[in-house]
């Protein structure tokens, strides 16, 4: 079965899989931080999937594997994949071009889904430039599925959940830990006067298939409204799940309520004509209805606020624990070379990319019309001056640990060390422009596509040495941040068409 093109976000929004400019980096940074922090293991598994379980789900530990490794699958006969071991740790067979399974990366687990016939849900033609899959399944009517939680290192089926659902999507729990949301919807028909309404219940599960909590998502737009909506635009009048919170938008208000109980917070949004909205596919808050000001919904325990009542719009950060403001962009000095207002000479337009280890990573406009940005790091509790800065683009690619950034400006790629802004390398005039795609799981390899020749390459992230060239689209791996493992799924790919299967590799030693 092929995954729907209009991948359904938790709450009914369109998340899609196309690579997004400007805010895509936020999603990767937020989720990677959660994966590196550690995900739930299967130890102490309750086995029954009780508690907060819902949506027609009933869990059981897979009896067929007995806790051992996955059954032996096909051998990998393709080219070496830089950043990964030569041989796969485990594999699954693929019977045709439309049977390559789609998986959700839950950190220590890869999540598969099977339909009533026992076939893995698949995607025929994923784009190599797409981000990680956000959805396994989405339909207007519920369907019986089996969710298969496989250990990323061994392929062992840690648990199966049998569900009747209309969507299965990737989301995040507290501290950015990956989770999966399984939804069921109920529609109340119109009585002739009252409009028909749809309510959705989402049950969240951790990487071991254990229930985390349940939330009611009362509003969904019609299919026609979904088709008219922008994939990456902010949404108002909706409900979503992200970072373990129910995110409710109405007009200019964005309210965050913990799914598992606790104090609700409201995202401040003052002075913006179009208010603030939420982009579900990247868990990002956008101000003024565009891409000028944005920040993660929650990053390292802080949520954003936006204010345009003064001379220049500014971004603040608030402690999720007590709601107190801890950082204000109006109190920092813009990095050298960025655009500032003529009337005060010191304020410009910036967005927040992340908070990590007490540091705030920001993105400033070089000028109001250019795509080039300056990325600057500030001390969350310190002085106004930037600790480091470097020139980048509006969509930098970060290594899994966030220590390196691959940027593409003026048709030139470069890799920068984020902590001090030091450029490790930049392309020369005699080289094909390389558009960065992703780092390997350990950050040692950078995959990219040349702009002119459309050739896929892998280069050493710190030296620019070419490690592989002319790679097939199907053989550019996805990587797991917490383990460094990577995977490819292909049929009739590679030299001689010998790569047929879904293969998971350990990191290169």
Blueprint of the fold:
Layout lengths: L23 H14 L20 E3 L29 E3 L11 E2 L3 E6 L20 E17 L5 E16 L5 E11 L8 E9 L5 E7 L5 H6 L10 E4 L2 E6 L2 E6 L6 E3 L1 E2 L5 E4 L4 E4 L5 E4 L5 E6 L6 E6 L5 E4 L21 E7 L2 E7 L7 E7 L8 E5 L4 E2 L5 E6 L2 E6 L4 E5 L7 E6 L5 E6 L5 E5 L5 E3 L9 E2 L6 E8 L5 E7 L4
Parallel strand pairs: 14-18
Antiparallel strand pairs: 1-6, 2-35, 3-4, 4-5, 5-6, 6-7, 7-8, 8-9, 10-11, 11-12, 12-13, 15-16, 16-17, 18-19, 19-20, 21-22, 22-23, 23-24, 25-26, 26-27, 27-28, 29-30, 30-31, 31-32, 33-34, 34-35
What does this structure look like?
With 509 residues, this protein is mostly beta strands. It is 4% helix and 40% strand. The protein contains 2 helices and 35 strands. It has helices spanning 24-37, 223-228, and strands at 58-60, 90-92, 104-105, 109-114, 135-151, 157-172, 178-188, 197-205, 211-217, 239-242, 245-250, 253-258, 265-267, 269-270, 276-279, 284-287, 293-296, 302-307, 314-319, 325-328, 350-356, 359-365, 373-379, 388-392, 397-398, 404-409, 412-417, 422-426, 434-439, 445-450, 456-460, 466-468, 478-479, 486-493, 499-505. The strands form 8 sheets. Strands 1, 3, 4, 5, 6, 7, 8 and 9 form an 8-stranded antiparallel beta sheet that branches. It has a 4-stranded antiparallel beta sheet with strand order 2-35-34-33, with no helix packed on it. Strand 6 (157-172) and strand 7 (178-188) form a beta hairpin. The longest helix is centred in the N-terminal third of the chain and has 14 residues, at 24-37. It is globular and about 65 Å long. The two termini are 36 Å apart.
């Amino acid at each position: 079965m092929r995954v729907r093109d209009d991948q359904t976000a938790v709450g009914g929004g369109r998340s899609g899989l196309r690579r997004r400019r400007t805010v895509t980096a936020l999603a990767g940074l937020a989720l990677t931080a959660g994966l590196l922090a550690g995900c739930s293991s299967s130890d102490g598994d309750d086995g029954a999937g009780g508690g907060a379980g819902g949506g027609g789900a009933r869990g059981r530990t897979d009896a067929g594997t007995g806790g051992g490794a996955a059954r032996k699958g096909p051998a990998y006969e393709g080219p070496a994949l830089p950043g990964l071991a030569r041989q796969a740790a485990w594999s699954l067979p693929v019977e045709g071009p439309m049977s390559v399974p789609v998986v959700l990366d839950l950190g220590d687990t890869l999540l598969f889904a099977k339909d009533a016939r026992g076939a893995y849900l698949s995607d025929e033609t994923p784009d190599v430039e797409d981000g990680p899959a956000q959805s396994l399944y989405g339909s207007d009517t519920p369907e019986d599925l089996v969710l298969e939680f496989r250990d990323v290192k061994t392929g062992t089926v840690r648990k199966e959940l049998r569900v009747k659902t209309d969507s299965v999507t990737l989301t995040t729990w507290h501290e950015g830990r990956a989770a999966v949301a399984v939804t069921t919807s109920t529609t109340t028909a119109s009585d002739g006067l009252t409009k028909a309404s749809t309510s959705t219940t989402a049950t969240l599960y951790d990487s071991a298939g254990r229930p985390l909590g349940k939330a009611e998502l009362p509003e969904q737009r019609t299919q026609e409204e979904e088709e008219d909506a922008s994939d990456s635009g902010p949404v108002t009048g909706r409900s979503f799940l992200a970072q373990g919170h129910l995110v409710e938008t109405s007009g200019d208000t964005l309210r965050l309520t913990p799914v598992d109980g606790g104090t609700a917070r409201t995202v401040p949004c003052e002075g913006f004509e179009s208010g603030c909205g939420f982009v579900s596919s990247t868990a990002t808050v956008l101000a003024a209805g565009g891409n000028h000001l944005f920040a993660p919904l929650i990053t390292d325990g802080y949520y954003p606020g936006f204010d345009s009542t003064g001379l220049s719009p500014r971004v603040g950060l608030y402690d999720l624990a007590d709601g107190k403001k801890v950082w204000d962009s109006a109190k920092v000095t813009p990095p050298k070379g960025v655009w500032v207002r003529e009337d005060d000479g010191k304020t410009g337009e910036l967005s927040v990319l992340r908070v990590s280890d007490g540091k705030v990573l920001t993105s400033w406009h070089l000028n109001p019309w250019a795509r080039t940005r300056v990325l600057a790091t500030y001390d969350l509790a310190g002085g106004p001056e930037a600790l480091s800065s470097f020139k980048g683009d509006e969509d930098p690619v970060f290594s899994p640990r966030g220590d390196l950034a691959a940027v593409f400006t003026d048709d030139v790629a470069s890799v920068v060390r984020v902590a001090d802004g030091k450029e490790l390398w930049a392309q020369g005039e005699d080289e094909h422009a390389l558009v960065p795609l992703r780092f390997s799981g350990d950050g040692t390899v950078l995959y990219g596509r040349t702009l002119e020749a459309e050739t896929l390459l892998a280069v050493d992230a710190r030296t620019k040495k070419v490690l592989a060239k002319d790679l097939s689209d199907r053989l550019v791996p996805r990587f797991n941040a917490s383990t460094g493992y990577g995977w490819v799924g292909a049929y009739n790919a590679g030299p001689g068409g010998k790569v047929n299967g879904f293969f998971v590799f350990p990191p290169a030693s």
